[in-house]
Amino acid sequence: MAFSTLSSSPGLPLLLHYQKPKFSYLTSNLQKPFTLNPRHHLKMSKTSSIKAQASVSDLGIIERAIQLVQSSPPTWQSALLSNVIIFTLGSPLLVSGLSVSGIGAAFLLGTLTWRAFGSSGFLLVATYFVIGTAATKVKMAQKEAQGVAEKRKGRRGPGSVIGSSAAGCVCAFLSIYGVGGEAFTRLWELAFVASFCTKLSDTVSSEIGKAYGKTTYLVTTFKVVPRGTEGAVSAEGTFVGLLASVLLSFVGYLMGQINAPGAAICVIASQIANFGESLIGASLQEKEGFQWLNNDVVNVINISLGSILAVLMQQIILQT
């Protein structure tokens, strides 16, 4: 009765005629089970399977690459792969210190070094390159103004790379092919370290001497000469060159290539060899009848002398 009374009220016609909305269509559809098109399901399964297989395949390749790089003893394959990776990642630094052809020569050197002495030998050569390049760049503008700077803003070419590493390459080949047997393996490694200690000391002493040397004189006559004169030395350059040799020999010691006496031998041999190189530069280099004796040839003589001296000194110590 109450409801009929309300319905007779003229003010509530819409409220009284309101009907509950029907959701039968929505409810019926929600109650239906969700089904996927079989073809679509098969396509998704194949795609997921392919992606999973590709992921596993990529992981397998990476794992094999890591195992190859860590090969012990090193192989030519591991040496080649390691150098491809390192040279790719380090290309900005390489471009700053080497010409394009110089990078090619350095790649061959790096591959040979890794094959002979593994990552420790490669790290030694990399340390030599970084310190040598940094020393070459010191006061480059001043050196260029004085006409004593290295060509191409200090970017070394293949001749310089080969001239700086010829003795080290010989030691690497001797080690790879086991010349002299197991007893000589450590000896070739000592000679290898000594060759780069010699060359680094020579490079640093020359470049720092040209940048900061107050008095530069010939070792043959002690005559004062301009900076950059072949065969000339300075106290500043000689001292820093000695420190560079000590540093690189210490790296060789830390990497297990040489022991403490071997490190001392490398330093002593490098200083004697550099003195001999100064004598050759002052008296013979590019003089009358010795035009063939250019800087690259003198470098080969210098580092070869450092390696030979190190081997002789080690043999003398072993015998005594």
TrEMBL record:
It holds the Pfam family DUF92. One of its GO terms (cellular component) is chloroplast inner membrane. It is found in: Membrane. Keywords: Membrane, Transmembrane, Transmembrane helix. It is a multi-pass membrane protein. Its main location: membrane. The chain crosses the membrane at residues 84-110, 116-138, 159-180, 237-256, 297-318. Belongs to the TMEM19 family. This is Protein VTE6, chloroplastic. It comes from Nicotiana tabacum.
